[in-house]
Protein: Sulfotransferase
Amino acid sequence: MDCPQDDDDLQVISSKGEELPQPNESFQELLQSLPIRKRITKELLYLYDGFWIDESCLEVVIDFQQNFQPQDTDIILVTAPKSGTTWLKSLVFTITRRSQYTISDKNHPLLTTNPHGLVPFVEYVNPHNHVGTPRLFATHLSYTLLPESIKTSKCKIIYLCRNPRDTFVSMWHFEHKIMSKLDPSWQFPSPKECLEQFCEGVSHFGPFWEQILQYWKLSNERPEKVLFLKYEELKGDIIAQCKKMADFMNCSFSSEEENDGVIKDIAKFCSFEHLSNLEVNKQTEQRSVPQLDNGIFFRKGEIGDWKNLITTSMAEKLDQFVEQKLQGSGLKLN
Ligand code: A3P
Structure:
């Protein structure tokens, strides 16, 4: 077979014989048409359908929107970054797979795989080849950006949110860690500057309040479709929250399981203390999300750590801002 000689030879021809667009051509056109902002951390974000997304995720998101084929039993876990995604993934994986892998099973996948390696993010990895039942997926996408096929199918969504003060502070440390590794001499912007941009809505998959409100409203309108959880409530009563999740996913705990302490064991197994001390999650060179070391998803796992980074007056301003955005929704995040 001859090698292509010039650009014309590189044209892609479909099985029906018609010419297809060059790979990425329409995507590049789309990018050029979108509003763009440079984050204080220097990344470029594009405003796509009302939400800020970086270029590499956006390409995967569009493919996901167009091609994802849901199954009625699928469970989609949705969070804003740094709201407890890792924890939610481990809990849902353990609850839904408990007949296959008991907590005492020496081969339990969570003992050797980071939760992000078991429940893929749809915006980082195209999840067409996902295996296991029910299929579990995770995303940071707002409801409007989910494929229509998910909205119309019977698959279920679990949404987890976290107090914006702690979410912001967790994000600040996360980005600080990433940036200092990439460029040790780089001066990371102050929490104050970062917080200002966070409140402008210019954060990955933000504005964060729009995402929270979409899933909050939906969980009230269609409680069989969306379960709305809070990080602080998981911390407050993990047993009750695990039961709630299992009921929602149609895999309720039996009274026998309850009496045998299965829920308690799952909670302990997925706790920060247990997961963060597993060798696989201490690894700095092992990766379950592209470019991110497994260990970066575990820092303190506490409520109220914002106090160690931002001032009370900054926190109060953030609270007022959030309260204003949530006004009339019936949702409180403090
Ligand atoms: P902190 O930075 O406040 O410690 P995400 O998983 O969405 O990236 O969120 C990360 C945050 O969740 C981090 O918060 C991390 O420490 C915390 N976290 C990770 N695993 C957890 C667990 N099993 N229980 C509670 N918090 C956890």
